[in-house]
Hints:
Elements: H1 2-5, H2 8-25, H3 32-49, H4 61-81, H5 88-104, H6 108-112, H7 115-137, H8 141-144, H9 154-176, H10 178-193
Helix pairs in contact: 2-3, 4-5, 4-7, 5-7, 5-9, 7-9
Amino acid sequence: MRRWFGSTKNIAGCLGGLIGLVLYAVGVIGPLWLMFVVMAVLYTAGALVAPPEKVRLVVDPAVEAAQVRSALEALLQTVAGHSGRLPPSAVDGVRHVAEVLSDLLKDPLRLAATPDLQYRVLLLARTDLPLSVETYLNLPRWFASRRDAGGTSAEDELAKQLDLLRGKAEKLAAEYYAADVNRQEDHTRYLGEDC
């Protein structure tokens, strides 16, 4: 219902109704009851003639990046709040991955220019990193440090996951900044040619 009030159809209908009110005010329409009928007809005509709202399925990259960066900040606050439960290396690992991803999200239009890279950055930021931390924090404390028959614990698994996530984040950053690195290398070659 709220979307209707700001829609183009409602605005066009209101303009039609306003025309009916102006026609009554200048004396074109006689009795008051006729004014209401004319306003209703003009409102309906305006609403029917107005174009429908455009469908918007694609999210604005700037809005999406801001939401994801906010979610990363919330994740870091959650990690800081549970730092007693997480191994210190895990806290540092989450912070590092979140910083790399947040940096990649600073220029959302540049990131959106490479949809595959954008998808992988968003997947890492929205799903992979939070899922690793969430899964570990949802385990009972006594169970997280317990070693299984193979000698590994949930802490070990979290450390492995964070190492993999760090590698993925750094690989994405290398891909994101590849053009800048190439530009810098080209400039170095250019400067070396004159010597």
